[in-house]
Amino acid sequence: MKKLLSVLLSFMFVAVLLVGCGKSGTSTTTPSGTTATAKYHIGIVTGTVSQGEDGLRGGDVLAKKYGAVANGGIIQQVTYPDNFTSEQETVIADIVGLADDPLMKAIVVNQGVPGTAEAFKEIRAKRSDILLFCGSSQEDPNVIDPAADVVCDEDNVTRGYLMIWEAKKMGAKNFVHVSFARHMSIELLSRRWAIMQQAGKDLGVKTFFETAPDPTGDVGVAGAQQFILEQVPTWVKKYGKDTAFFCTNDAETEPLLKQVMKYGGMYIETDSPTNGYPGAFGIDLKAEQGDWPAILKKVDSTVVADGGKGRFAAWPSSFDYTTTAGLGEYAKRCIDGTAKIKNKADLLAAYEAYSSGTSWNGSNYTDLSTGKTDANHFLLYENTYVFGKGYIGSTNVVVPKKYLTYKAK
What we know:
This protein has 409 residues and is of the alpha/beta class. It has helices spanning 2-21, 49-66, 88-97, 116-126, 141-144, 158-169, 181-184, 187-203, 220-239, 250-263, 277-281, 292-305, 319-336, 344-352, 401-404, and strands at residues 26-29, 35-38, 41-46, 75-79, 104-110, 131-135, 150-154, 174-179, 206-211, 243-247, 266-270, 312-314, 360-366, 373-382, 385-386, 390-391. The longest helix has 20 residues, at 2-21.
């Protein structure tokens, strides 16, 4: 009798194992106490906090909303190395490794550091079922576009016109573009500057270029920031207080904002209210973290109190944060069948879900050398917010078509 009971128990144990092995997906306990099964996973690859906190936090909000894979949810977060330029093999391995998960159905990389395109090619060779989305690519469009299903960047083509339009609307007579050689070698940034110069001629705003040190060069970040602190008084004296400034480097934006406020002048749109403003004006945003309307309100009140009403502007939510969260949301909707790949309206709807209070617009990337427009590469921008004044209405502006394919003469 004991032997028979032992045999029966053994069969029951094996049966339980077989049932467990037969399940697809990962399970998690819902708030109601029932067990739900994740039918697929979405990989989110970003930099670390030290490289760009907003992008990472965009992944965090997705994990909070849909659950992390470790807890039975659908979001698997991975960060690439801080020294990604010298550790491309690790970057590639980290991204490709996500495809080893049989439930992986989409991978979002933001920012698309060098090595992303190669990783996508390797994934595509073995897993054609995985959607591959890239945000803020640091690789040439001709390299990343063929490898990805969707690529999203800041619309540095349209912004070339819009920032001059905004400067004029804010009352600026001059526009000073601060940058350095490395940034000007990036195709979309050099193209934007060329458009700015032409737009300035067309709209009656004089444009000027000032060279600053590259923070990745010998002087480092500290040296580059010190240069900005020392030069702004001279620049304001040279160009006048009815001058709008803009800087292509985030590290140099903070001292530029600080000094422009102190000596006079204007600043045209950072891509986030957290870009430069907290450090320049001593704004503590810990309590508001992730709440973009609350962040915007606090930055707004501080800038106005310091005397910057109508003279400083920013995008109302972080582009980096929204790109991670928005592309992750878009990927989920595409998998679920509620959105279509390469559909701009569906993409913008996903972005707007994580940037309440603002609107988005954009266009597709066109290669100037070939004239080819990439249907999967979207250039996006937000409605700019002028502190103390409100939204300037940039997403409703009809940008003349000539600027979209403008070539520097």
